[in-house]
Structure formats: C-alpha cells, structure tokens
C-alpha cells in the first residue's frame, strides 16, 4: 500500500537515490530542496531545515497533497570542512544547525502525525565519520554523531506507538565529490575499506527503504553501517 514519504535534501546524491527507491516501490514521495526545481519525476517542496516556519510550511504542503508523513528520511546536510584551529564559530554552528538541529525539526514535526496514526518510520542519514572521526570535519562529525543519541532517544519515547527511529551511516559513496579526488587520495581511502570499493548511492537507498519496511518493524534505535567495513568496531 502506498505511503506518504518525505526525504529532506532529496534533490541529489544519496537523498535522490533514496527518494527514487521509495517511488519505485509505489510510495508517494516528496523531496525537500532549498532552490531550483525538483528532479524529474519527483514532487518537491522548498524548505530550509534551519527555519522552523519553513519546515512547518513544507509539511503542511506535503500533508495536503499526499497525506500525513508516514516515512521520514532526514538526509539534508552541508559540510564546511577545515581543521579545528581554522574553523570559525559560524563554520561549526551552521553545520550543526543544518545537519543535526534540522533533523530534529523535521522529526519533531513528522512525529505529530505518526503519533495520531500510531505508526511511523524515521530514518536519519548519518555518516561513518560520525563514529570514526575525520580530521578537518569536527563540525560534520559532531552533527552526524549527534544523530545517534537523538534517534535512540526518539526510539525510547515513541516506540510504544509503533514508531521506529533508526540511523544509516554510509561510508564513501560514488559521487561528484569522490570523483574529483586525486588518485593518491582514492588509493589511500580504498586501502581502509575491506571491500575495496566505494558504495553506490543506490546501495544506501536500499538499506533505508528496508528499514522503513514491514520486514524491519522490530528494529529501532539501530545504527546500520553501509561503509564496506570501513568503520566496523565503532
């Protein structure tokens, strides 16, 4: 049966692959984006996850067009990489506000409808960096690590209403960013990945879709790595 799905930051990369995976399964999917037009074949709504009023307006539009959100994928995020001693206050707070506080805002808003329905799926898109750490990404790693505590707290608060909250932690994914790396840097990264390759965005998307399925109904508060073994043990 078709469900109402919202994917934040779903206009490119992993978010777009996730949105398409749900759409292919027959769900009604809307993605949020901050500018431009949504990708072909997907419904979109303009939304700035750092602004509570913008989040409220986006949810109202989605609810009017496809019903209360039954599956939320909190994927929207930014990076501002630099070493800690060079990192400005804004570099840190802007990344945390978008990645972590933004995920909180959309999860809080989505949970209202889920509580009324007594069911729901929330999936946070974190990163192996949130568990492993990464030089030059103190802000990003902090925001992604915070998702784990947030998801587990939500899982405890809302579990009695059949609402699950889980985290997917991708490793390096084939993208424009990884394609632009030098060959030496690519070799260095791949040496640390037991499977010896990057993930595809579609591989991450399939895990997210599974966590939102009936097959994963008894899984909540989990952190599922999709990283080829890069972060195992963390």
From TrEMBL:
It holds the Pfam family adh_short_C2. The active site is at residue 140. InterPro entries: 3oxo_ACP_reduc (IPR011284), KR_dom (IPR057326), NAD(P)-bd_dom_sf (IPR036291), Sc_DH/Rdtase_CS (IPR020904), SDR_fam (IPR002347). It catalyses: a (3R)-hydroxyacyl-[ACP] + NADP(+) = a 3-oxoacyl-[ACP] + NADPH + H(+). NADP(+) binds at residues 9-12, 75, 140-144. GO terms for molecular function: 3-oxoacyl-[acyl-carrier-protein] reductase (NADPH) activity; NAD binding. It is an enzyme of class 1 (oxidoreductase). Keywords: Fatty acid biosynthesis, Fatty acid metabolism, Lipid biosynthesis, Lipid metabolism, NADP, Oxidoreductase. Coiled coil: none annotated. Homotetramer. This is 3-oxoacyl-[acyl-carrier-protein] reductase. It comes from Phytoactinopolyspora alkaliphila. The gene is fabG.
């Amino acid at each position: 049966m078709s469900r109402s799905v919202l994917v934040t930051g779903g206009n490119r990369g992993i978010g777009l692959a996730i949105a398409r995976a749900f759409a292919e399964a027959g769900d009604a999917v809307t993605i949020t984006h901050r500018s431009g037009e949504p990708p072909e074949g997907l419904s979109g709504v303009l939304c700035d996850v750092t602004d509570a009023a913008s989040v409220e307006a986006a949810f109202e539009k989605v609810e009017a067009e496809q019903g209360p959100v039954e599956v939320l994928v909190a994927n929207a995020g930014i990076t501002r990489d630099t070493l800690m001693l060079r990192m400005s206050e804004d570099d840190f707070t802007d990344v945390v506000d978008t990645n972590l506080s933004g995920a909180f805002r959309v999860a809080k808003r989505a949970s209202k409808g889920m509580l009324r329905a007594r069911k729901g799926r929330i999936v946070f898109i974190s990163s192996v960096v949130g568990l492993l750490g990464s030089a030059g990404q103190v802000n990003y790693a902090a925001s992604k690590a915070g998702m784990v505590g947030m998801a587990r707290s939500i899982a405890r608060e809302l579990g009695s209403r059949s609402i699950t909250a889980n985290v997917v932690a991708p490793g390096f994914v084939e993208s424009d960013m990884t394609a632009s790396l030098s060959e030496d840097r690519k070799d260095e990264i791949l040496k640390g990945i037991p499977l010896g390759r990057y993930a595809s965005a579609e591989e991450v998307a399939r895990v997210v879709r599974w966590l939102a399925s009936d097959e994963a109904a008894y899984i909540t508060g989990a952190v599922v790595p999709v990283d080829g073994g890069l972060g195992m043990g963390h």
